[in-house]
Design a protein that fits this description.
Adenine-n6-DNA-methyltransferase TaqI, Chain A, domain 2; 423 residues; 21 strands
């Protein structure tokens, strides 16, 4: 493997194009590691305290690359006696890098944040974390956070990870990876500010997505009658005098096509052009199909699908295979299907599940799920159209966020050089 250095990034701000190669060092030459604690969640609280504590799980799930304590929700250490045992140099300072040293996922092992603002609060690094502090302040605050997210460094960390089911990285092993940085701190700051601004744009669009989802949730609660009620709180003006809605069992408004389900064994699945639906949604693609209809499928075992723990409703159409872990329903018209789909995806149907370890929605329970519907088909169509339009906005917003993330990923690859190959 070639060890030739590649320490000039592909993308560089104009004022730094003549600055030459970046500096390359072993991480252990730039950072020392400080003592962390091993406090599990039971020793932490969100109800106030004197010292905040970083738990590795929060690095994996919610903390931003650049950690500003005023913008993050961080638990406190409960016990004053535990606080008394903390060494002074174990308290985080600006520029510290905190790594999560354990993960079940290779992509997350060694995931890190940089402490950029503490606002005079006390913060320590806790369970399954590594706390790295610069020896001589070679890196400007903000740059390190993005440096340790660059592809070259992430790949090195992943190579150093050890373990089977749970992967881990130690301070000794991570100290051996190579890092590189501009010698000019102004260039470091420019890169950090640029990427931070892009993160703010992504965060703003993510907030807009959350707002759209909350708006849809509120609409769903008001466009359908609540429990014990016969009319919704919100109604389109042309239907205000159309009277009460009716409640119908799902089995009475849809034709069940379960008899057309065909089980597919794993060795029968091949890559192709036809979607294959089962308990986990689209499982694979196969080369044949059952029918060409507009259908609604309800997963028989929807655990862990799209962060939900009850069955998922999803529409499918065209040439499709469906296995015996998906109920197949055909509706007389598309707008009723859409309305039912939106409704089922908005309610908790746990009362209709059977089984403990692996909850299921069997045919008999499926058929008796109560569905509130307007008597007037035009009102059904209007509501379905309204919610579908909102779903289109949500989908478009989610796609915009993904495009921004891909854009950032491409920029990161260009802004950070690959460095020399590992020994």
């Amino acid at each position: 493997m070639s060890k030739e250095k590649n320490l000039i990034p592909e993308l560089r701000f104009p004022e730094f194009v003549n600055e030459g190669e970046w500096e390359e060092k072993i991480l252990g030459q730039v950072y020392d590691f400080k003592v962390t604690n091993s406090l599990s969640r039971e020793f932490l609280t969100y109800n106030g305290g004197k010292v905040k504590n970083i738990h590795y799980g929060d690095i994996h799930t919610k903390f931003n690359t650049l950690f500003d304590i005023k913008k993050e929700i961080v638990p406190y250490i409960k016990d004053h006696d535990l606080i008394e045992k903390i060494r002074e140099d174990s308290y985080c300072i600006g520029g510290d890098i905190v790594f999560a040293d354990a993960s079940e996922d290779l992509n997350d092992v060694g995931k890190s944040i940089e402490i950029t603002n503490l606002s005079n609060e006390k913060l320590v690094s806790g369970l399954h974390t590594l706390l790295a502090r610069q020896r001589e302040n070679k890196l400007t605050i903000g740059f390190g956070g993005y440096l340790f997210k660059s592809d070259w460094i992430r790949k090195q960390i992943q190579r150093e990870a050890q373990g089977a089911k749970v992967l881990g990285i130690s301070a000794n092993r991570i100290s051996n990876i190579k890092i590189s940085y501009p010698k000019n701190k102004d260039e470091q700051q420019k890169i950090a500010s640029f990427l931070s601004s892009l993160d703010e744009v992504i965060a703003a669009h993510s907030q807009k997505l959350d707002t759209l989802k909350e708006h849809k949730k509120g609409l769903m609660q008001n466009l359908f009658p609540q429990e014990g009620e016969k009319v919704p709180k919100l109604r389109f003006k042309e239907f205000l005098n159309d009277g009460e809605w009716v409640e119908k069992k799902l089995g009475s408004i849809a034709e069940n096509l379960d008899s057309k389900r065909i089980p597919i064994t794993s060795n029968q699945r091949e890559k192709g052009t036809i979607p294959y639906y089962g308990a986990s949604g689209i499982i694979d693609y196969v080369k044949d199909f059952i029918y060409n209809e507009n259908l609604l499928c309800i997963s028989e075992d929807g655990a862990n699908l799209i962060d939900r723990n009850y069955p998922i409703a999803f529409s499918i159409s065209g040439k499709t295979w469906v296995n015996n872990h998906a109920h197949v329903l055909k509706f007389e018209n598309n707008y009723t299907q859409l309305l039912v789909e939106k409704y089922i995806n908005s309610i908790n149907v746990e009362d209709f599940l059977t089984g403990m370890a692996q909850p299921k929605l069997n045919r008999s329970k499926l058929d008796i799920i109560p569905i509130p519907l307007p008597k007037n088909p035009n009102e059904q169509q209007k509501i379905a159209s309204c919610l579908s339009s909102l779903d289109d906005l949500i989908t478009a917003q989610a796609e915009k966020i993904e495009q921004l993330k891909l854009h950032k990923k491409g920029l990161m690859q260009g802004l950070f050089p690959c460095g020399s190959s590992p020994q």
